[in-house]
Amino acid sequence: MTTQSSQSAQQTPAWQYYQPGAYASANIRITPTTLADGRDFFYLDDDPEYVSGKKTRELHDPRHLAYRFAPHLDADGNEVPYAAPQMRRDPLTGDWIPMATARMNRPITAGPGATAKGNPLAARKPGDPYQDGEVPDTDYNVVIFENRFPSMVRVPGVSDTVTNVDGNPLWQQKMAGGRCEVICFDPNEHGLPADLPVRRLRTVVEAWAFRTAEISHIDGIEQIFPFENHGQEIGVSLAHPHGQVYCYPFIAPKLETELQHTEAYHERTGGNLLRDLMNAEIEAGERIVMRNHSWVAYVPAAARWPLEVHVAPVRDVLTIDELDDQERWDLAQMYSTLLKRGNAFFDKGDGKGMDLPYIAAWHQAPIHDARRANYRLNLQFFSFRRAANKIKYLAGSESGMAAWVSDTTPELIAKRFHELGPIDIDD
């Protein structure tokens, strides 16, 4: 692969469906390349020198990696084909369960079980003995790339037809032909997402929109799920500030349940359940924790988690790529404020708060399902920390029966957020 300038890459973009707004067109430059094993990689630069083309990114990946889907040798020296990830359907629930065996080999940098010699999400460090990082350049703003150890991936030449496990029609199986991508929010591997400037988070929002627009047109994808796991207690294997985009070849169980209820509500009332829930929270007032021109954040009246906030756009929007420039800026501002207040939520006695473990989950309308018309974009942000020194464990009722028992009330969660800052956060 030859090195090319960011200017030439911009002239021949690798996308067809993403349409940048006025701000992104002038202030964010997307530069595509391909990693040594054939995976897609994108730089998203907001540094003016890179946006202008005065500086360019390194696009050549110097690692000697085999093609990602190449055959390999087994323990006996025999060549075997790449093992495409499989998924099986649970006959009791109808859920598809991907079997992500490749994840057993992924590097881990967080926690006592760390195995990696270096951080694969960090920028390349000249002279560093660890040179298996995923970023070709020695610096970056935001980058996106296909996961090296995906739980779902479409393998060329492998059929995705349904077959039966052990020949028994009770157990269906097929290739887990989805897609998994990683979004690194910042080159500072020791930083926190809550500490990023709003301008950088605005670039992250653009990354979510860019990938949603493009991946929506990949064959076999039914749902696009941008999300962020943060904190060792959540189970994060890489401590670098980053998120992921899972692209399912099915509708995930959580969204499927929501679609059933939003569709039934529409058939019964003619309304949009998510819009009516937001408006009802606004009318009630007590559980609203933040709002700006374009977004409303509230603790839902039936919150499950000891810290839970839902964020909804004021305007009816189905997916992130439908947001306009103002909505994307307002989202970056609200997300920044939410992360900061989340870190201050639990007081250890020193008034400094803590690095909150959390999951930020984007619920978007599915791609092809007709029920998408009655859905609505929303972010569900939650943490299983219930005190500065306590975690909510999902025990018998939650894990065994999915019957939730809350450790607090939504009103108390909202009251704590009200102590941390004003509801109106418009500049």
Automatic annotation (TrEMBL):
Domain Galactose-1-phosphate uridyl transferase C-terminal: 259-373
InterPro entries for this protein: GalP_UDPtransf1 (IPR001937), GalP_Utransf_C (IPR005850), GalP_Utransf_N (IPR005849), HIT-like_sf (IPR036265)
Entries under CDD domains matching the protein: GalT
Stored SUPFAM superfamilies: HIT-like
Cofactor: Zn(2+)
One GO MF term: UDP-glucose:hexose-1-phosphate uridylyltransferase activity
Taxonomic superkingdom: Bacteria
Keywords, ordered alphabetically: Carbohydrate metabolism, Galactose metabolism, Metal-binding, Nucleotidyltransferase, Transferase, Zinc
Principal EC category: transferase
Family the entry assigns: Belongs to the galactose-1-phosphate uridylyltransferase type 1 family.
Entry protein name: Galactose-1-phosphate uridylyltransferase
Organism whose genome encodes this protein: Bifidobacterium thermacidophilum
Gene: galT
